[in-house]
Every structure is written in C-alpha cells, then in structure tokens.
Design brief:
The chain is mainly β. Helix content is 5%, strand content 41%. The strands form four sheets. A five-stranded mixed beta sheet has the order 1-12-6-10-9. The chain has a five-stranded antiparallel beta sheet with strand order 4-5-11-7-8. The chain is elongated, with a radius of gyration of 21 Å. The protein starts with 13 loop residues before the first strand and ends with a strand.
Length: 216
C-alpha cells in the first residue's frame, strides 16, 4: 500500500479555472442620435475580471490558499452588474466515490456582515444580493458600478477537504484530479428601463440618488 507523504510537494488536486465576462446591453440604449446638427454618443462599456493567485501552487488536504477575484469597470460608462458561478469537476474526470465537488472544494468570501464565510446558499459577497432565475443563482451588485471603480472581492480563498490522500487503496486518491470554476459577469447600463429590457422577467432595479441599487 502506498503511504501518503508528509511533504507538501505532493500534488493532490490540480486547479483548473475558466473565467468568462459577458457584456450585456441593448442596441436601443447605445443608439447615436442627431438633433439639430448635435451628435449624442454613449461611452462604450468595459468590464474586466481581476484575479490574484499563484497558478503554480499545489493544494494539499486541509490547506487554504488565497484566490482573490473581483470585477473592474475599465471605462467611463456607469453600469449595473450581476454575476453567477459554477463549480464542477472537469469534463471526463472520475473521482473516488463519485463525490460532489462541493464536498471536496470549499470556496470563501467576505459577506455583508464583514465576516469571511464559506460560499453557500445562505451567503453573499459584500455589497451583493442573491436572486435566482431559471435555476441559476445570480449575485447583483447593490451599487451603481461607476467607471474606473472596482467591486469588493467576490472570492477570497479556496480550501481542500482534510480527508483526502493519494492512496488508491483507501478509495481516496484525488491526485491529478481537476475541477473547473466558471465565473460569468453580466452588465447593463445604469438605467432601470435597460434592466427591464435586458433581464426581462428576471429582476427589476430601483436606482437611488445616492447610487444604491435595490433589486426585486
């Protein structure tokens, strides 16, 4: 029987990540109009996803690693933002006991109370609220996403379950197994009518004078 090495150089899980940012808006809100020789233009939107982590890190059981993710508005146009994410085993991966990836991989963020908590159905990242639509959990930013600004972190760290090894005889060999985390960001113009048109039937927005956004 193989023995699990005490050295942290053992590769017990290879992290596979995919990030996707989608810009959503309707043509009606970007149309160029001319009235009495005066041309009106709308600044183009630019939303980016920023991540900070060491891709060469090797996780071992019970070890938590920093994995910071946030959104940035790289242009001048004010936007409204939501995101969703999916955590799953990479395609074709077979794991011991067919264990759910969420039982093995733990994600953490800071919630609206300022506490670092595990990502679950009862928590949201700071300054976000959760609304579900079509079986998908969306996290909506509760502020107007102004040009040049960044959101709070929507992910802070990743931790692997303690009860893992590279011993196939114990039915717990997770060496070289890959999982995939997909984060999808979507934006519309900071306009209540744009929300109604772009995310029709999913959610409505009420934008306050102080830049807060109430989602219903």
């Amino acid at each position: 029987m193989k023995q699990l090495s005490n050295k942290k150089s053992k590769i017990l899980l290879v992290l596979g990540l995919l990030f996707l940012t989608v810009i959503g808006a309707t043509a009606a809100y970007y149309a160029v109009q001319k009235v009495f020789q005066n041309e009106f233009k709308v600044e183009k939107p630019g939303i980016g996803l920023i991540e900070k982590y060491n891709p060469s890190d090797h996780w071992v059981p019970g070890e938590e690693k920093s994995k910071e993710v946030l959104f940035a508005n790289t242009e001048e146009q004010d936007m409204l933002l939501r995101f969703s994410f999916e955590l799953k085993w990479a395609d074709g991966v077979q794991v011991p006991g067919n264990r759910d990836v969420k039982d093995v991989v733990k994600l953490y963020w800071t919630d609206n109370n300022g506490d670092k908590v595990e990502v679950n159905n009862d928590s949201c990242p700071r300054d976000f609220v959760k609304k579900s639509s079509g079986g998908v959990d969306y996290y909506y930013y509760t502020k107007v996403f102004k040009g040049g600004q960044k959101t709070p972190k929507v992910l802070e760290s990743v931790k692997l379950e303690t009860n893992m090894s590279n011993d196939e005889h114990l039915n717990s060999d997770f060496s070289d197994k890959k999982f995939q985390l997909t984060i999808k960001g979507e934006t519309v113009l900071a306009d209540e009518k744009a929300v109604a048109e772009q995310w029709q039937g999913q959610v409505t927005a009420a934008i306050g004078k102080n830049g807060t956004v109430t989602w219903q």
